[in-house]
Amino acid sequence: MVIMKAMGIESDQEVVQMIGRDPRYGALLLPSIQECVEENVYTQQQALEYLETKVKRFSFSYGSVEKEGRALSIIRDVFLANVLVHDLHFRPKCIYVAVILRRMMEAVLNKDAIDDKDYVGNKRLELSGQMISLLFEDLFKTMNSEVKKSTDNLLEKSSRSSKLDISQHLARDIITHGLERAISTGNWDVKRFKMHRKGMTQVVLRLSFIATVGHMTRILPQFEKSRKVSGPRALQPSQWGMLCPCDTPEGEACGLVKNLSLMTHVTTDDEEGPLISLCHSLGVEDLELLSGEELHAPNSFLVMFNGLILGKHRKPQHFATALRKLRRAGIIGEFVSVFVNEKQKCIYIASDGGRVCRPLVIADKGISRVKEHHMKELKVGIRTFNDFLRDGLIEYLDVNEQNNALIALYEGEAVPETTHIEIEPFTILGVCAGLIPFPHHNQSPRNTYQCAMGKQAMGNIAYNQLCRMDSLLYLLVYPQRPLLTTRTIELVGYDKLGAGQNATVAVMSYSGYDIEDAIVMNKSSLDRGFGRCIVTKKLTAINQKYANNTMDRIIRPQRVGRDAERMQILDDDGLAAPGEIIRPYDIYINKQSPINKEISVHSPAGLPDSAYKSAIQTYKGPRGETAVVDRVALTSDKDNNLCIKFLIRHTRRPELGDKFSSRHGQKGVCGTIIQQEDFPFSERGICPDLIMNPHGFPSRMTIGKMIELLGGKAGVSCGRFHYGSAFGEPSGHADRVEVISETLVKHGFSYSGKDFIYSGITGSPLQAYIFMGPIYYQKLKHMVLDKMHARASGPRVMLTRQPTEGRSRDGGLRLGEMERDCLIAYGASMLIYERLMVSSDPFEVQVCRACGLLGYYNYKLKAGICSTCKNGDNISTMKLPYACKLLFQELQSMNIVPRLKLAEA
Amino acid sequence: MDGVVSYQRFPKIKIREVKDDYLKFELRETDASMANALRRVMISEVPTIAIDLVEIEVNSSVLNDEFIAHRLGLIPLTSDRAMSMRFSRDCDACDGDGQCEYCSVEFQLSVRCDQDQTLDVTSQDLISLDPSVVPVDVAARSSSTGFDATENRGIIIVKLRRGQELRLRAIARKGIGKDHAKWSPAATVTFMYEPDIHINEDMMESLSLEDKRNWIESSPTKVFDIDPSTHQVVVVDPEAYTYDDEVIKKAEAMGKPGLVEIYAKETDFIFTVESTGAIKSSQLVLNAIQVLKQKLDAVRLTEDTEEADEQFGELGAHMRGG
Predict the structure, then answer these.
(1) Which of B161, B128, B167, B146 is nearest to B19 (CA)?
(2) I want to staple A471 with a disulfide (CB 3.0 to 4.6 A). Which of A120, A283, A538, B291 is the partner?
(3) Chain centroid to CA B15
(4) pLDDT of residue A64
(5) B72, B127 in Cβ contact below 8 A?
């Protein structure tokens, strides 16, 4: 109320009128009015003075602010800054406040009126353009002030020799550097807007084609992930068709990180001016002309444009249909949304950027505007999607406007009230979920798992995959197109850049090496190329230039002598040659760097050989494995140094422990590899490529996988790719099980997909019929070769003399606290002693029994001496972990004396 | 050991169909162990020749060296010589590096694309230094039987574009399918038990023609049919029966359990052998029997010796009747 008064509405009655004369509102307003009386605030002047006391005083002052008071400037510039104030004309702001207050009180009185903050229509996506523009604004202003400062400095000088040349003060790459820094680090630090955000840029994942596409549709939340809230993580009904319901990571970011659906479009800013004038000419009455009383008149609707109150309209439905007609005719932008909210008596018009919207087929009285001849034209290629849009057959609706539409899922289900028809139901899923055949038959978390796993699958990455220089690249040798495809697969091109192979799978138990999701693989299949993959790694060497004009050099390898063997793969130019087989510890670049890098040398080129020391780089790969140098590229880095990149290729066949997965979130490792003759076979001679344990099915409930098997089997026997698009059965984008079964029977299989199988070991028939057929299997990037690690003795950390940590440093395996607790409880004291000291960091120390401190061993006298007591009389020798000795010494260095008291053991 | 009943049997083979790469025969009067042993040997122990060592001189094709080497290895080579060849690991003539005529065959391949169309490098471009060991499709072309020569363009190794070149030397060696599937001469070896189908004629006659038709339709494969003249259900092709039990279930569903009884004859097998072309399918079976004999001989020879104990441990003692 004080604020309303400060904005010039001094009459309480007018305020109440503006908010609405409902007595319930009055009751809620009463305390505020009372407060005004108590504080003796009646006029605008009094209100401002009152507010002035509440405003924090800043020690520094702005000239103009002081004159009119900080309170006024805050009300004018900060308070509801989106409502512009011209010449202290506060009325629009008052109306805005009144509408806010009314909504608030409505929410207090009626819980249903509370807005849902997770509602997708209330959300905006921040796009790269907006981010860059913010950054640019900041940098540009910084540059301007810099230029101003330097020109001022120059102009202040009394004697200037030359004319002022502003271009001299410009540039200095402030903007370029600022943008480069922000984009390369991902840290958006814009002080002007109090923005400090990290991870705003990401390097696009090139692990697989799907990972790339999936990464580009990702939406990251703004608030931190650590909060334990369920609301924003839950599946929102309003995200239907806009955000994929399946594709979200597991764990802390679950439900917060989302992915766009297949047809989602994110809007960009549209020009407001013409739209506002158009609204006015369509009959929106400006609020300037209305009294407070009329603000909430029941027979007219408030018109909101991009969050601003534009005015009122008496015929909301007419207005909305008129705008929509204009949009369909292409006169206003296709992404402008018009939403009539009956409950709030508001019309929302939005043309701002960051709204998600999706295309829908327009229907008139339940009859689709898209007719057969349109589809024929599309097939022939005369018509494109944009033509549909331009001709007003299809339009984009955002989440809000969808609430005004009655959308039929299929044309046949349309009723006369229907305004729109879905294009295809499977488009509610995103790219990653779209790869799953029959996802609507799976338990929902399985689809989510597959969305995460599809990104780890090996296969093709891009058409230029063999020309790329990725630091790590996984490729499949013989990638295949899935036998059971979906429409999404065809739309995104997964059938051309696949990441998996169609494996004949028998669902049965075999050998016991298939428990806990392990799979049994056929050795002959592996011999013939199943699951074979290529891993390429990039090794980089830089021919560094130094400050004293000296630089590294690459020299001809030694063909005889000590290092000759390790230099076998080098060409005469000192670089590894493409096509050479490289083994661990082989030298791939015979580089030397100058010993003297700081002090300037008069002839940098003519340094003698003795002035260089060897700086060879050796290949560190898994022991016993050989790789091949694929390519060598010579480039230059950003400091213009010669940069040599080696691509090392390693072809791997699947081995025990490699990870595989079907497209239904069913991952498993290879449990054993078995000869083909031991594998079961059918009368037709079909022998599976892999065997999967049937226990994978009951608890996972992946019916989609079973249907995939059936469909794949039918597909192989009849020679037609079968489809399994999500929710595709009614529209013919997925084959029905009945039809698949008929196909199977026609080709002499059982309708159930089960086969009569003989054991390969004994030759006798198996007791049960075995569910067998092709399933698309993905090889995941987790391979045993990259992970396996064991060590006996090896490197130790310098400081503590304990074994190093981690596989990359050939580290030891830690016997941790909990394991230690177990041993204590069990009483295995010798084992603890052995693990924690003998095998870790034993150290022999000389302890003085008199002072309890550590002494040293004098090798000349062959006796231990205590440096504190200055004698060797009471010295005992004992073993201690080196870390313990280190602790004692560190304690001593901070004036704490640890003393050992020895007793006979 | 006298007085023990002899379980020796004399299996009979009846050949039904022979083609170069396909053989169907009956194996009678034996049991699953015998049939399965034969199958297993055919898949994994009949030796053939396949490219095992590749020295690449120039490779500017899109596929990398290992990729091409793998593809070369999988090309079936005519291996009629394989049985008489030596394994390179126990070859006396060379030091086991597999470069002598007794244990290896050398191939050359040198292709360069100088035209604008893509050039297919196929198995026909592999030049063998031994005319008896060539890629199977080349052999088929020269003998011009079975294959349609115009259709047969050879097995594609890699496709080259203008300026790309592939030059290599490959050494083929003898090996068995157990080591690597490329040495397996068998594309498919499978057998089935011969089904023994008994139709209960009396019960069948109690069915109407419609019911008979329905019953016949219930089998996914065409096992039964109706004699057009007598309207009797007859077994057309017992081997088409896949032990799917569909007809039995159907009979039960029709309320006529026991309408038909189907047993698998445990002594009779029908074998289907498809060869990769490395050796003729008939030869494959003969070689398999020979290999199997050799294996049995190896067991029999060590039977009574002390070595058997070392070699087989308790099993050796057991074999000697201990």
Answers:
(1) B146
(2) A538
(3) 16
(4) 46
(5) no
pLDDT at A303 over 80: yes
The 10s digit of each residue's pLDDT in B45-90 is 999 999 998 999 999 999 999 999 999 999 999 888 888 888 877 7
Average pLDDT over residues A63-80: 65
Q: Name the residue facing A683 among B33, B39, B242 (closest C-beta).
A: B242
CA distance A448 to A249: 7
**Is the ipTM, as predicted for this complex, more than 0.90?**
no
B192 → closest Cβ in A628, A683, A748 = A683
B220 touches A: beta carbon within 8 Å: yes
Residues in B touching A676 (Cβ below 8 Å): 43-44, 177, 181, 184
Task: List the domains of chain A with CATH numbers.
Answer: 2-114 (3.90.1110.10), 266-422 (3.90.1070.20), 432-532+656-779 (2.40.270.10), 534-597+610-651 (2.40.50.150), 841-905 (3.90.1800.10)
**Closest among A12, A11, A57, A6 to A31, alpha carbons compared:** A12
List the one residue out of B113, B111, B106 whose CA is nearest residue B124.
B111
Check residue A160 and give its pLDDT. 66
Its pTM stands at 0.87
Best of B23, B24, B44 to disrupt the A interface (most A CBs within 10 Å) is: B44
Choose, out of A758, A759, A761, A772, the residue to mutate when testing the contact with B (most B CBs < 10 Å).
A758
Please state, in angstroms and rounded to a whole number, the distance separating the CA atoms of residues A610 and A76. Answer: 75
Are A101 and A24 contacting, i.e. CB atoms less than 8 angstroms apart? no
Amino acid found at B220: P
* Alpha-carbon radius of gyration of chain A: 37
Read off the tokens for B231: 């309207």
Q: Which range has the worst mean pLDDT, A48-62, A391-405, A795-809, B31-45?
A: A48-62
pLDDT for the residue numbered B1: 46
Question: What secondary structure does DSSP assign to A498-530, as a single string?
Answer: ---EEEEEEES--TTTT-TT-EEEEHHHHHTTT
Of residues A164 and A579, the one with the higher pLDDT is A579
What is the rounded distance in angstroms from the CA atom of residue A750 to the CA atom of residue A5? 84
Domains of chain B listed by start with CATH number:
48-183 (2.170.120.12), 201-258 (3.30.70)
Spell out a b/e string for A757-794, using b for 16 or more CB atoms within 10 Å of the CB, else e.
Answer: bbbbeebbbeeebbbbbbbbbbbbbebeeeeeeeeeee
Token digits of residue A280 = 């006015």
Strand (E) or helix (H) holding A889: helix A882-893
**Closest by alpha carbon to A294, among A88, A98, A101, A105?**
A98
pLDDT of residue A65: 46
Tokens of A350: 């939005």
A442 vs A116, residue with greater confidence: A442
The two tokens of residue A507 are 């669902």
Residue range A438-448, pLDDT digits in tens? 999 999 999 99
DSSP string over A148-203: HHHHHHHHHSS---S---HHHHS-TTHHHHHHHHHHHH--EEEGGGTEEES----P
CA distance A656 to A785: 10
B190 Cβ under 8 Å from any chain A Cβ: yes
Nearest chain A Cα distance for residue B203, angstroms: 26
User: Is A517 one of the catalytic residues?
Assistant: yes
Q: Which residue of B has its CA nearest to A467?
A: B62
Whole-Å CA distances, A341 to A27, A113, A213, A338, A693 = 27, 12, 36, 10, 55
The Cα B85–Cα B172 span in angstroms is 12
Of A327, A277, A288, A333, give the one whose Cα is nearest residue A311: A288
Alpha carbons A581 and A577: distance in angstroms, whole number? 9
